[in-house]
Amino acid sequence: MTDIAEVASGQNTDNRTRWIGVYIAALAVMLSIATMIGQNAEKDAAKANLDATNTWAFFQAKNIRREQYRVALESMRLRLAENPEMPAEAKAMIEAGIAKYDKNIALYTSDKKRNEGLDELWVRAKELEKKRDDILSRAPYFDYGQAFLQIAIVLASVAIVTGGGSALFLSILIGGAGLVSTANGIWMFGSLPGLS
Is 151 within a domain? Predict the structure, then answer.
């Protein structure tokens, strides 16, 4: 009888070990997914930041150019005001320059056709900053998810070696926290104060 009990006990241990092994494999797959998504989020945040920076640089260049036109425009208007009796040909040339600069200033301010006026660039840069900030607010959840999943794998391995149930139970709890944290990074169904 003792031989049958020992065989049955050995089979139970083998089954338990197999199931824990499968559980560890599932955790490892989840860890790989969380790591991949987290790394992609970092790349996406860096790209959005670079795009926002480039858009703001373009905005600044256009703004400087618009201000140059404004200074030139004011100079032309001042010349007209200072010399009301200038020859008609010179006055016509200055007025044509004023009209041209007014048109350029308006185009630098808003260029809906090419979507490159200051108004459009402002909106685009703000959207890119918002995208970057959204991605960065999600990143910590991937980091915590990865850490929890790694700890869960270690605890499950300890459960195999020791045969104890408390390490396995703790592994399941922490593994669940890792999955929830990773899912939260993806779908943002909640936010922890100071983490985002």
Answer: yes
